[in-house]
Amino acid sequence: MCKTEYAVCGTPHLLEGSLSAFLPSLNLAPRLSIPNPWIRSYSFDGKEEWEVNPLYCNTVREIYPYSNSNRLLNIVDMAIFDFLTGRNMDRHHYEMFTKFGDDGFLLHLDNARGFGRHSHDELSILAPLSQCCVIKRTTLLRLQLLAEPEYRLSDVMRESLLQDPLAPVLTEPHLLALDRRLQLILDAVGKCIDTFGEATVVAEDTAQPQSPAAHRARLDT
Predict the structure, then answer these.
(1) Which residues are catalytic, by number?
(2) How many domains in the chain?
(3) In a domain, 154, yes or no
(4) Radius of gyration of the chain (CA)
(5) Quick one: average pLDDT of 57-73?
(6) Is residue 138 part of a domain?
(7) Which residue ranges make up the annotated binding site for Mn(2+)?
(8) Residue range 31-58: mean pLDDT, rounded
(9) What's the pTM?
């Protein structure tokens, strides 16, 4: 369909779209919808705290379950995923299956507007990483591997998507944007390590990242 309030119309009859996979019903797979600490403001007359306070993560670290589980590390993983795909920045909630408790994995739902503008890198999506300065060791190692010439992320994605019945799926500019954004993520991690040291920034997957008072003091300066 084509309506004046939508910024998409056929040219003349073809229209870009997306495919969706549906989860089991809540009766079969109960899950929780949890507000994202880095939710965006949806008004023109105000901003969320994280948008104006670079020390916002210190507050998040004091709140359950981010205070004593790997939830914060999972939030950073989700932000990295959203940044790589150039998502529409409105990850206002995330969901979890209740069966696995507080340490369960996050469901990355609602990605229909991923890979929209290949020429724009929305750095604010990386706020959980840049403000908390923590990342899973396994995530960092995988990102570093995908930055190597022989395992370049764009090449891996290109080869993988060739097997898809809808190939090529992504255009070449979108594939190249993955490499550019990956380097920006590694740069952000590098700045954190320069400031706080690798032992503080790079966390084991099951370890709860800490924010010592000494590191908070350095942020204040």
Answers:
(1) 90
(2) 1
(3) yes
(4) 19
(5) 92
(6) yes
(7) 110
(8) 89
(9) 0.82
